[in-house]
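User: I'm preparing a small set of examples for a lab meeting where we compare how different chains pack in three dimensions. I only have the primary sequence for this one, and I'd like the structure in token form so I can line it up with the others. Please keep the answer compact; I'll paste it straight into my notes.
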Amino acid sequence: MSPERRDTFRWRDVPHLLSTRLLAAFLVPTLLILAVTGTAVYQLARAILEEELGTSLSNIAAATASQLNGERMLTIEPGDDVGGTRTWRNVVRLLEGVREASNVRRVFAVDVQGRVRADVGGGLPVGAEVPELARDRLELARVFAGQHAASQVLFTGSDGRLYKTGYAPITLAGQVVGAVGVEGSAAFFGPLQRLSRTFAIMGALALAALAVIALLTARGLARPLRRLMDSALRIGRGDLTTPVPPEPTREIGVLARELEEMRGALEGRDRQLKMMLAGVAHEVRNPLGGIALFSGLLQEDLRAGAHEDARAHVERIQREVAFLQRIVEDFLAFAREQPLARAPVEAPALLSIVSELSSAEAQSRNVVLDVEASPALLEADGSLLTAALLNLVKNAVQASPSGGHVRIHGAVRDGRYAIQVHDAGAGVPDLQKERIFEPFFTTREKGTGLGLPLARKIARAHGGELHLTSTPGDTTFTLTLPLGAVSPPR
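Assistant: Understood. Below is the structure token output for the 490-residue chain.
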């Protein structure tokens, strides 16, 4: 597989990766939150309900113990339950009343050795040891020390249900002589389990709903991203004419607009590059043809001994070569990006230098240069600004009639420095005004068409602009530049 196809394949995978990541981003945190929250709530609710049940059972046991006579309880001996002695019956009647009133499973009374003195609901005979007491040794130690207590864990009864036991001491003359145990059902555990299952079902439904939302969101994002991806691939393949479609989504819409601006800029540069190449080819073709023609004539004249004619042909060839050299220099100056070497430049001195450099050509055309510059300090690249202004003044001199004036005027205007180059020539026709700053557009036979585009490029590189206003007999190029940090006093 070629690198291009591999890259395209990776780009095609982006929407699917986005869907997968969105699903993970939605579901994984939600699943963790539901699991942790559900488990914590369940454990907390169970702990609270268990504590409440233990407290309730130990309070019932305490109320029962307060009604028992410790001395009479201790008189109950093994076999009293078989013979049905009055003391045993009275204790059992009390315990049965507590059991019915409290709706508990079992109520029993034991001595400090853990032997049964009465057992309602458990069925153990008098004198038997209660097996469950071995499980609650720590709790019983506290009870025999005179405190209330409840078993720390739930236990499963013979019916398969969960139970808990509450204990309270039986006292005689301030001494603990036994304990009452009350076993109650943890009836809350069934609804709590059902609530837990309901919570799990609701959590699963919530996860399913989030999965659907995530898929819809991923698809909603993947479609515009796929369109952006297709546009980016088209641009990468060199298709700069197909516009990037706008997107309604705010964030992706911003990306689409930025991509469209990038495409437009690339298309403009591509169009400009093609135009420049075509212009270079056109401009170079004419002098090359002249050089080929005059070199052939030169060869013939040299063979015939016509040295004067040969000298004229050499001069023509040299002029064509010089024109070629100027085309190449102007093209390179326009094409390459030159970093600005900014430094303080005094505007009057800049315009004076431009006037001096243009004076020779102005004199040869019988044109007068008038310079007037208000004091100002510019932060600029002096050499590049000089080149730009020389182009403007040269064009004005060439457009001026013999005996005309070219006025070079500089002044501060609206917080910027405006340099105007004015001539009284024939002016620029309206149809040509729109193309005057296009590279290689020229109306002169030996013009390269790069002077004005280069001047505007230099102006914009300095944060300024170059404008043209022209009517017959009144043409003005205005170059505006930002002022420096400090201006000299007026």
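A couple of notes for your slides: Residues 343-482 form a domain with the Heat Shock Protein 90 fold (CATH 3.30.565.10). The radius of gyration is 53 Å.

User: Perfect, thanks.
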